[in-house]
Amino acid sequence: xxxxxxxxxxxxxxxxxxxxxxxxxxxxxxxxxxxxxxxxxxxxxxxxxxxxxxxxxxxxxxxxxxxxxxxxxxxxxxxxxxxxxxxxxxxxxxxxxxxxxxxxxxxxxxxxxxxxxxxxxxxxxxxxxxxxxxxxxxxxxxxxxxxxxxxxxxxxxxxxxxxxxxxxxxxxxxxxxxxxxxxxxxxxxxxxxxxxxxxxxxxxxxxxxxxxxxxxxxxxxxxxxxxxxxxxxxxxxxxxxxxxxxxxxxxxxxxxxxxxxxxxxxxxxxxxxxxxxxxxxxxxxxxxxxxxxxxxxxxxxxxxxxxxxxxxxxxxxxxxxxxxxxxxxxxxxxxxxxxxxxxxxxxxxxxxxxxxxxxxxxxxxxxxxxxxxxxxxxxxxxxxxxxxxxxxxxxxxxxxxxxxxxxxxxxxxxxxxxxxxxxxxxxxxxxxxxxxxxxxxxxxxxxxxxxxxxxxxxxxxxxxxxxxxxxxxxxxxxxxxxxxxxxxxxxxxxxxxxxxxxxxxxxxxxxxxxxxxxxxxxxxxxxxxxxxxxxxxxxxxxxxxxxxxxxxxxxxxxxxxxxxxxxxxxxxxxxxxxxxxxxxxxxxxxxxxxxxxxxxxxxxxxxxxxxxxxxxxxxxxxxxxxxxxxxxxxxxxxxxxxxxxxxxxxxxxxxxxxxxxxxxxxxxxxxxxxxxxxxxxxxxxxxxxxxxxxxxxxxxxxxxxxxxxxxxxxxxxxxxxxxxxxxxxxxxxxxxxxxxxxxxxxxxxxxxxxxxxxxxxxxxxxxxxxxxxxxxxxxxxxxxxxxxxxxxxxxxxxxxxxxxxx
Length: 806
Fold this sequence. Notes:
- The chain is mainly β.
- It is built from 7 helices and 55 strands.
- The chain is elongated and about 220 Å long.
């Protein structure tokens, strides 16, 4: 049961007190009482959080006969709450026990009723009727506690008048604020502004303080994804999202009442996604030559990590962009420099409404001219040609890109076969391709790789130049000028049917044609200009004929070195120790007799041809004929011997492959008729001796009346006397081997000690003449004295004494 104003209308439960007192009444009559004072002690006090303020209800000394009471106490429930009520010492000190009851059963909000009585006795004031313990109420501040109404009775159940007192209780307990979590929404990358009592409201707008204190806000933990953030004391704040791909953010604040009361709460910010346009890196200005390869990546990122699409406009011809990756590739088209520079635009689309354009310039330059070839070379094809009388010419170079084209031009010396005699000349290198054509050069071929073969149809000595063209046709400077190259074989003058028509082979038909027209000059009806091929400008078979207008030894050498009509076998004779030509004049004979002079040759294989110029007294001997000797027939290839009809014997070994003239024997004989008396006075004139490449070879000349010993293999191996003997410092150790096999030849001292091993190898049957220089195995000269030469052959062992004299 609850009254709207219990402090004013509540009536004590007199019936209860009356009954209690009646039960405890003692004998005696009633009397009048003076006005009593009902007071509170302390009259004013304070209570803090967690504490209890005890207030005593006292009565003064005017009360002499007190049996019981029933009091209704009023209090301010906002500021104080009764927590306990106990019996005062006035009742507990009486002789009879008290009965006490505290009626606080939730019936009243702001009052309590306390009943107390003594059983069988009474007491007198002053003293404490009861003690009330107050704890802080919910509201800080002062409140009053007072006696609202009540009854005090004596032992005769007579009311004792009283003056009610009042006490003040100061609630100094502060209640912390109630901070409530907040929720906000902001767009990705956007700004949120919250103000007190605004929309949206500040963080304190939904917070409260029971005490009614004003609140202030301070930041505890800031947001994670804020580009900018500021929290005001009044709870307002400004938040700018940093644009990252986040869904929520939050910050923690503290609400404070200024009196030490605080509470923290979290403000949660929901971030609504916003599509971000792609971020594209500007590649900057580009520059590429025509036909230049391009691989340019347009770099773009998207915050949402969506698939991007790329569209390009204004690219130079030949380039394109991959719409899915943004990679620009291709080769800039030839001629694109005419439209340079290009304004290129790239749009990068995230397909969700976000498009980012970039623009840059692209310069296209003309293609740089390729480097000129510096090692252009041309070489005659020696084998594998067809039989049309002209050979191929291989053209080579290096350092040219495989995508470039090489234009090869050729020009001949001119006027085959007379060449310079007829007005031919070596060409000079042209400045460019146009000048080449104007100067009579012929475009031989457009080649992409070296090593290909050009075959001009007309016989000549050809020179080559080349120009490198880029993919777009930009031309290099002229290459080096090659030397002249023959496109036919010198000596290829017959196809076995038609004289003067070749078949790319120098064989018997060609040699026969030369022999028929040999030893004539250009004044002779037998002179054929295409036979006049020697000497050449470098003496080799690759050189240009200098056309000396005489068909003789120089021409024979060209024919013989290019001769390829036979297969060479191994030499039939052992090589001589040195190249020596010995003339053995004929013995004196009567006039009219025929006599024969011998030309002995000791050859070590280096000589491939020689022109022997003999001198003699034509008043004594007259030339009749010549003939080949046994040495000519004992070679690995045929030997041609021609005579000019006057004083020259020309000898050539056909074919340049393998060794030259080898062995020691009669090379040729010359038959004379004795036409006068006296000494014929034989001698040698100008000699021309040539090797495998037609270069000069040294040859010693001798004239003797004693015929040398031929080098034919003896029937039994023999150690011949050395020559000279005695000797200083060297001598020739001569021996013949009758059967091929391993041979050892050494020089020994008289004590049997080996001084020098001269020969230790397998030898074919034949005659040999190695030299000993008088040195031991260490290269030191030995002393004068007698030594022995010992030969160990497959079929014989033999020794001879030799003498060294210094």
